[in-house]
């Protein structure tokens, strides 16, 4: 049918636009709770629109980059939805997999798994893909399987699956500089290495990073790679810092718009650090970037951000009034009434902040971390920015008093519209050689924080869903399901509250 | 046979005939990393089936953030040992472990 020699794919939890609401993607990191898996998947990961060949209109951004690199090198490559792989069995020689959490070892999947004792849906879904008749048949035919993406490291803990499913090579890191060579050798049937870790000195230059050829999920467009803050638990900070030029950003937005995607989700570890000098925001560059985006998407389109850091939010507003200016002049329109963003709070303890993320508070001192967070949340609340904040529990060297400080910080944040997602420590970044946070390490203080985040999130989620997030007749079934789900979880938590510690330790 | 990407690699050959200290691999990486190498191809000759040879390298991979690592598996046979040693002969390399020819 197609003649694609190289097929890129992933399981349903990755190949979806989450109803156009990125935050719903979090549902795919948990197990299907008290409902059929199919229904849970529909809630968090509905099937995307595809063409006759099974090519999705929107696909994960990282896979789009790999696809672009291969197309530019002249390979017949395409991203194919997992339900349509069978259409390409005759031509497929290489099957490339991408995922950010193949086996649910990443945060927060590992945490939901630990709390509920049930396998998260992303793990179940990926296993089903690998054990599907199509993938098995492809393997029998001699198709080579190459796995990559941010979750590549997890294969090292799943060697039996690696063997059973016949994975030929796992690549970890930024692959632009190596992938064309690897695929060329694989097509020539030359022996491949088993594992490649691409170190920071082999990160691609700006010229080596291609422009995507097909649309990305929810219009995600990368504006920078790497991060200067150097948080020890984060793998992104290991990469060299590169700012994507406006012209490339513009080209990628146009690719998305031409495919019918109405919004743009700017991706960066901290959108306010675009073209920054060190960790001080560059207001001119930020305004210019957003003006460009608004010009391209028009008043009807939505602008989104992937991540912000509390310290840049505070600094940008205090020093330049930038948050208010940006929201009032560019982002908020008659159609766009808010912007959602992921914000790493991680801890409420200045001691721990100093130890594991000394640069995160910068240009303020790490001792002021809780104060910075509260101030940033206030600024965001006043400007219709809704943060989905993350907290990390069980960081090595964490003491009881650190967890208590985190609980106190959550109390202070209760006035500000936000969601707070607790995560258990997963060894990554410069801390990847350390131990995982396990059930046996759960203490009463952790449970206090879990409950506080739960009630905080529940309280604000209802308001967010009603007033901001899910609008229009199309979203009504989803809204009803989510509200029902929240009620159910609240009932379960209330019921089991007295025994939670015991349940977690089981 | 190697990737173009590996041309500037430092090669570490691990002949695992049973009693190899894998900690030496990390030592060799660090030592040669200080000499300016940033890519390392680790050839593992082992009787363990692939990918289970990676179990012994896992902590090395986990402890490394700075260097590019390329790991290649070869079944431990006399022919393969000869082939790998021939391949790395004119390239910068170090060998860990040994193999007795019958």
Features:
heterodimer, A: 506 residues, alpha/beta, Rossmann fold, pyruvate-formate lyase- activating enzyme, 2 domains, six-stranded parallel beta sheet, four-stranded parallel beta sheet, 39% helix, B: 102 residues, 3 helices
Give an overview in words:
The complex is a heterodimer of chains A (506) and B (102). Chain A has 506 residues and is of the alpha/beta class. Chain A has 17 helices and 17 strands. In chain A, strands 3-1-4-5-6-7 form a 6-stranded parallel beta sheet. In chain A, strands 14-15-16-17 form a 4-stranded parallel beta sheet. In chain A, helix 9 (283-297) runs parallel beside helix 11 (322-331), helix 14 packs parallel to helix 15 (444-469) and helix 15 (444-469) runs antiparallel to helix 16. Chain A starts with 5 loop residues before the first strand and ends with a helix. A 4-stranded parallel beta sheet of chain B has the order 3-2-1-4, with helices on both faces. Chain B is globular and about 40 Å long. Chain B has 102 residues and is of the alpha/beta class. Chain B has one domain (4-96): Rossmann fold (3-Layer(aba) Sandwich), CATH 3.40.50. The mean pLDDT of chain B is 92. In chain B, strand 2 (39-46), helix 2 (54-63) and strand 3 (68-75) form a beta-alpha-beta unit. At the A-B interface, helix 6, helix 7 and strand 7 of A face helix 2 and strand 3 of B. Strand 7 of chain A pairs antiparallel with strand 3 of chain B.
């Amino acid at each position: 049918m197609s003649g694609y020699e190289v097929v890129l794919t992933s399981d349903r939890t990755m190949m979806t636009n989450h109803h156009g609401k990125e935050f719903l993607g979090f549902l795919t990191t948990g197990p299907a709770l008290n409902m059929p898996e199919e229904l849970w998947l529909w809630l968090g990961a509905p099937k995307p629109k595809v063409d006759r060949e099974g090519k999705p209109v929107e696909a994960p951004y990282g896979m789009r980059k790999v696809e672009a690199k291969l197309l530019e090198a002249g390979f017949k490559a395409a991203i194919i939805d997992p339900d349509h792989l069978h259409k390409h069995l005759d031509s497929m020689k290489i099957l490339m997999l991408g995922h950010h959490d193949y086996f649910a070892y990443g945060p927060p999947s590992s945490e939901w798994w630990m709390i509920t004792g049930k396998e998260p849906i992303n793990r179940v879904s990926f296993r089903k893909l690998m054990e599907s008749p199509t993938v098995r048949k492809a393997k029998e035919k001699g198709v080579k399987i190459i796995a990559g993406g941010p979750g590549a490291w997890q294969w090292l803990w799943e060697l039996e699956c690696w063997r059973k499913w016949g994975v030929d090579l796992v690549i970890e890191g930024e692959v632009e500089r190596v992938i064309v060579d690897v695929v060329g050798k694989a097509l020539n049937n030359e022996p491949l290495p088993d594992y490649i870790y691409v170190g920071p000195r082999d990160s691609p230059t700006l010229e080596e990073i291609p422009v995507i050829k097909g649309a990305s999920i929810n219009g995600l467009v990368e504006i920078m790679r790497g991060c200067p803050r150097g948080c020890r638990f984060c793998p992104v900070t290991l990469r060299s810092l590169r700012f994507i030029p406006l012209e490339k950003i513009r080209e990628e937005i146009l690719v998305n718009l031409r495919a019918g995607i109405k919004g743009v989700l700017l991706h960066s570890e901290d959108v306010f650090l675009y073209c920054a000098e060190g960790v001080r925001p560059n207001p001119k560059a930020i305004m210019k970037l957003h003006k460009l985006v608004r010009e391209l998407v028009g008043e009807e389109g939505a602008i989104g951000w992937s991540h912000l850091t509390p310290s840049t939010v505070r600094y940008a507003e205090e020093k330049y009034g930038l948050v208010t200016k940006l929201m009032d002049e560019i982002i908020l329109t008659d159609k766009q009434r808010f912007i959602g963003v992921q914000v790493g709070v991680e801890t409420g303890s200045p001691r721990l902040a100093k130890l594991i993320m000394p640069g995160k508070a910068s240009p303020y001192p790490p001792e002021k971390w809780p104060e910075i967070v509260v101030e940033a949340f206030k600024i965001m609340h006043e400007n219709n920015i809704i943060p989905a904040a993350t907290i990390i529990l069980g960081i090595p060297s964490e003491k009881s008093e650190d967890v208590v400080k985190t609980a106190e910080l959550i109390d202070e944040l209760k006035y500000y519209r936000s969601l707070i997602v607790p995560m258990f420590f997963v060894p990554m970044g410069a801390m990847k050689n350390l131990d995982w946070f396990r059930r046996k390490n759960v203490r009463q203080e952790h449970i206090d924080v879990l409950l506080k985040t739960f009630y905080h999130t529940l309280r604000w989620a209802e308001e967010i869903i009603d007033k901001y997030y899910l609008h229009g007749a199309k979203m009504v079934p989803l809204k009803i399901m989510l509200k029902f789900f929240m009620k159910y979880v609240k009932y379960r938590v209330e019921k089991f509250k007295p025994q939670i510690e015991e349940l977690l330790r089981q | 046979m190697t990737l173009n990407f590996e041309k500037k690699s430092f090669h570490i050959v691990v002949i695992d005939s049973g009693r190899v200290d894998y900690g030496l691999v990390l030592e060799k990486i660090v030592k040669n990393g200080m000499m300016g190498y940033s890519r390392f191809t680790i050839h593992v000759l082992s009787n363990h089936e692939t990918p289970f040879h990676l179990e012994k390298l896992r902590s090395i991979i986990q402890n490394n953030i700075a260097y590019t690592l390329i790991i290649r598996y070869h079944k431990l046979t006399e022919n393969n040992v000869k082939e790998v040693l021939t391949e790395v002969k004119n390239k910068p390399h170090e060998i860990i472990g040994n193999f007795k020819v019958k």
